[in-house]
Amino acid sequence: MGKHSNKPAGSENKNSDRVKDRKPRISPVVRFVVTFLVLLVLISVGFSQLFTRFHDQILWLMEDTAAISGGVLSLFSDQVYYSGVFVTYKGFSVEIIDECTGMFEMLIYLAAVFSFSTTVRKKLIGVAIGIPAIFVFNVVRIIILLLAGASSFRMFNFMHLYFWQVTLIIMISTIWIGWLYLVVYRDGRK
Questions:
Q1: What is the average pLDDT score of the chain?
Q2: How far apart are CA 67 and CA 86, in angstroms?
Q3: Tell me: the pLDDT tens digits for 59-88?
Q4: Of 79, 142, 185, 186, which has the fewest beta carbons less than 10 angstroms from its beta carbon?
Q5: CA gap 105, 166 in Å, rounded
Q6: H or E element: which one contains 95?
């Protein structure tokens, strides 16, 4: 004997057609990661091209970073000298190069913000909050490196090569997560 079903005739075909018609859904996490990596590559390639072409025009960013770092440190000591891209504290001098400005960390942060699925307004708030926060953190980093270098070159090397590399990743992540909680999810909607 055959199976007996209470379902109306032909309903099995409709349900199986609906399942076939569904497009596979991509996980929001996978979508974010893929978008982030693609954006990061595009931003990096684009920035690299622009940076190479207009390097002399952005020298001001290195000079301003040096002046702000030296200026803040000079509030606490009269043994600070800064000129152009150089900052000296107690005889220990550093040159602020493009990697010292925080702009690469800002590019990573921008890729993370623009990869997240939320409104344009919230993304712009993320940029307005995150970029200055990264810049301030970077100035603090330079000041701490100057303090470390003035007391021990070995300490300077450790902090510059290892400690701050990890700390910068944590800092970018913390600012991004803070943006998610304080701006994106604040009203319960993305």
A1: 88
A2: 8
A3: 889 999 999 999 999 999 999 999 999 999
A4: 186
A5: 12
A6: strand 92-95
105 burial via Cβ count (<10 Å: 0-12, 13-18, 19+): buried
Distance of CA 178 to the CA centre of its chain: 12
Q: Which helix (H) or strand (E) holds 175?
A: helix 164-179
Structure tokens, 117: 């699925």
Task: Please report which helix (H) or strand (E) contains residue 50, including its range.
Answer: helix 28-53
- 24 backbone φψ class: left, alpha, beta (φ>0; ψ -120 to 50): beta
Which tokens is 116 given?
Answer: 């997240």
Find residue 89's DSSP bridge partners: 80, 92
Of 182, 48, 42, nearest in space to 110 by CA: 42
Dihedral sign (CA 55, 159, 40, 179): negative
- Structure tokens belonging to residue 137: 């953190």
pLDDT tens, residue by residue, 114-142: 999 999 999 999 999 999 999 999 999 99
Integer Cα distance of 158 and 164 in angstroms: 9
Q: Please, are residues 179 and 171 in contact by the beta-carbon 8 Å criterion?
A: no
d(CA 14, CA 24): 18
